[in-house]
Design goal:
5-stranded mixed beta sheet, Tetrahydropterin Synthase, Chain A, metal-binding, 4 helices, EC 4.-.-.-, lyase, alpha+beta
Length: 136
């Protein structure tokens, strides 16, 4: 019997959407206000879900405290109150779109979750704009 557990988290971060090799005009045409050279910020909400078999001894799929610690260490501590373009190494050469951010987060968490578990990450950039990644 498979069950999904989920943990919500939150972080605030700034970013700028642009491509270094494009002109300002091309960046403006594609990314609009998100191309502001002085950056802009979001209050991101995150839901991390792990699906797996219930352990007959503990009754857990996994300890939610362990999942909470992973999110705190690998996401909140590294992204919260940061400029994603400047402060987060994964985005030095990767445009920090919501799509790319959710994949980076998923990869960070995936390394710490047992391979037999399924992992899904949902990232809300705004209350109405969100992305979901479940792996390849």
């Amino acid at each position: 019997m498979k069950v999904t557990i989920s943990r919500k988290a939150h972080f605030n971060a700034a970013h700028r959407l642009y491509r270094k090799e494009w002109s300002m005009e091309q960046n403006d045409a594609i990314f609009g206000k998100c191309n502001n050279p002085n950056f802009h910020g979001h209050n991101y909400d995150l839901t991390v879900s792990v699906t797996g078999e219930i352990d007959p001894e503990t009754g857990y799929v996994m300890d939610v405290k362990f999942l909470s610690d992973i999110i705190k260490e690998d996401v909140e501590n590294q992204f919260d109150h940061k400029n994603l373009n400047l402060d987060v190494p994964e985005f030095q050469d990767l445009n920090p779109t919501a799509e790319n951010i959710v994949v980076v987060i998923w990869n960070k968490i995936r390394k710490r979750i047992k391979p037999e578990f399924e992992l899904e990450v949902v990232l809300y950039e705004t209350p109405r704009n969100f992305v979901t990644y479940k792996g390849e």
